[in-house]
Amino acid sequence: METTSSQSICALLERQARQRPQAPAVSELHDGELRTTTWADYHQYVLDTAAAFLDLGLQARETVAILAGNRIEHLVADLATAHCGAVSVTLYPTLSAEQLAHVASDAEPRIIVVDGPASLARITELPWVEQNRPVLVTLDVDGEPTHGELHWQKLTAAGAGHREQHDATLRSRQAAIRAHDAVTYVYTSGTTGPSKGAVLTHGSMRWMAGAIERAGLTDYEYRGISYLPLAHVAERLWSIYLPLQTGGHVLCCPAPERLAEYLHVFRPSFFMAVPRVWEKLLQGAERLLASPAFSSRGDELARDRDTLLREWAQRYDDMPVPAALRMQAAEAREGVLRDVRAALGLDRTLVPASGAAPIGDDVRGFFASLGVEIIQGYGLTETSGVVACERLGTASRGSVGLPLPGAEIHIADDGEILVSSPGNTPGYRNRPDANAELFDARGWLHTGDIGRVDEAGRLHITDRKKDIIITAAGKNISPTAIEFRVAGQSFIDQVLTFGDTRPYVVALLTAPPENLLEFARDQGISGTDPDELVHHPAVLAKAQRVVDEANSHLSRPEQIKRFRLLATTWTVESGELTPTFKLRRAVIHRRHADDLAALYAQRDQ
Question: Secretion signal: which residues (predicted)?
């Protein structure tokens, strides 16, 4: 008999612990070996921690903040908060001191869990923390407490000892949870202005996990890797809520740079990555294909990759695939490419997915040629992560697929995508002004994205409403439609196009120093200073050829007329990217104002 409200995520954990007590729930990698926690032990760990939080005086609807990496303690602290009827908020580790201070003062956490001394030092310097003195808990012990912090192991051990006396309170708190109650606050990336805390509820997250299951994307033994920041709504979905729904198994990867290792060890059945991660994996796959293990099988690789790419491209363009090509593709998947997928750790990945930003067709095509067909999804923090996605085997050019079961999509007169869904947030914490702008008069959520629905019912995203460039001639231009054709080509990494109120479009192109040096070596160019290489005639000529190729697919107003090559990479840490790897356009505009002005100061050739 379930002792929690059937409307809460707590009921999902209780159900899995009862039905699958000895099945694996969460694992971590220590010295090359998996250490696994079963569903029964996971449930007990959460309840012990919830009792410990009650010891600290946590009340229903108060907030617990977590500044930590992807580890079991993070997941447990999050779920324990929910079991107390309270609300979690995970803090991005890359936030600046100013951004951390904003989230802390807005969320007002009663308890803050940090992973170690460095995070503790950042938290204790925040003015709100100094003034309000929340309880501080550190996961990693490093000597005696310096700020009155409590050690996680001692805290949870005490909670286990006090479980019985808190049992009635915990049951009462969980039984009182309703679908509309907040389970977490997820703060938006804040491409402009301070971030806002989207309220996500028990009901919205339960619906989201159930809708993904009904869409057939978890009809297998769920095995996923938790590696993106848990402050990202998508990572919360894959790491916390979907496993609760499916009884799946999650491996915690503490550092994204170790992802390739974790893929090889765990071989997940579900793997979601943002486009930036897929691009990094592509580079690793190219090195693998050129390695001695596969270079001797080059002819076989080329033949089979060509077969899979042709078969995928015809389906991608909604073209019929001849039976002979389908059979050739089936055989190609069984040969050397199966060994390649195994070496990458993707041989058991039934659902390779991408989201958060558009992924280039070249990246999708590359992986399709290996037998890894990436599906794309679309959603917002405010829609609890996903509102539309491609189903397995239905990927098509330019589409992000069909709405999830129960979600509805409407295109407004100005092209904006509006969403009605049980996953929609009820609003932002402490922001009635922003809530008024978030919904229309009928209650449909404004996404801020521009799109269309095709004759098959598939959603196509064409741009961000606020990112649209309107040139001096009054032409509306989609920057992302231009940028994805250049980004990732040759030594070019990222692209930002610019042209609002200007006569034509220009672009800033980043070229990481390591890419430039590799190109220089290949071309026999002397010199090792990246800042000098970006001005070398051969480098500029190659960049121009990439831009010209992109321009050949664009209308004249969309074409990049001039560009500036920068020997750098925009990162989250340096402030040009959001934590979900979106361009902070206003930041880049401000920092490169002189570069952009110079592009318009040049005389026409």
Answer: none
Q: What is the pLDDT of residue 190?
A: 53
CA dist 477 and 554 (Å) reads 11
What tens digit of pLDDT does each residue of 413-452 get? 989 999 999 999 999 999 998 899 999 989 999 998 889 9
Quickly list DSSP for 480-516. HHHHTTTTTSTT---EEEE-TTSSSEEEEEE--HHHH
16, HSE (Cβ side, Cα atoms, 13 Å): 26
Given a contact cutoff of 8 angstroms between Cβ atoms, the answer to whether 266 and 240 are in contact is no
User: Cα separation of 557 and 12, whole Å?
Assistant: 53
In angstroms, the CA 66 to CA 88 distance is: 8
pLDDT digits (tens, 9 = 90+) for 108-162: 999 999 999 999 999 999 999 999 999 999 999 777 777 789 999 999 999 999 9
365 membership: H or E segment, kind and range:
helix 361-368
Query: In this predicted structure, what is the pLDDT of residue 474?
Result: 62
290 contact partners, CB below 8 Å, separation of at least 6: none
Q: State the pTM of this model.
A: 0.83
Half-sphere exposure of 173 (CA within 13 A, CB side): 26
Q: Which two tokens stand for residue 247?
A: 């009884």
At 425, give phi and psi (nearest 5°). Answer: -65, 150
- The answer to whether residues 264 and 343 touch, using CB atoms and an 8 Å cutoff, is yes
**DSSP 8-state secondary structure symbol assigned to residue 198:** E
Percent of the chain with pLDDT over 90: 76
Contacts of 92 (CB under 8 A, 6+ apart): 99, 187, 229, 231, 579
- Residue 604 pLDDT > 50: no
d(CA 584, CA 466): 12
Identify the pLDDT of residue 2.
44
| Both tokens assigned to 519 | 């190109």
Provide the mean pLDDT of the chain.
92
- d(CA 391, CA 574) in angstroms, rounded, equals 36
C-alpha to C-alpha distance for 560 and 252, rounded to whole angstroms: 42
Interatomic CA distance for residues 335 and 376, integer angstroms? 26
Cα(412)–Cα(281) distance, integer angstroms: 37
Phi/psi at 172 (nearest 5 deg)? -65, -45
Tell me how far apart the alpha carbons of residues 420 and 286 are, in angstroms, rounded to a whole number.
42
pLDDT at residue number 473: 64
Domains along the sequence of the chain with CATH:
10-200 (3.40.50.12780), 274-373 (no CATH), 468-601 (3.30.300.30)
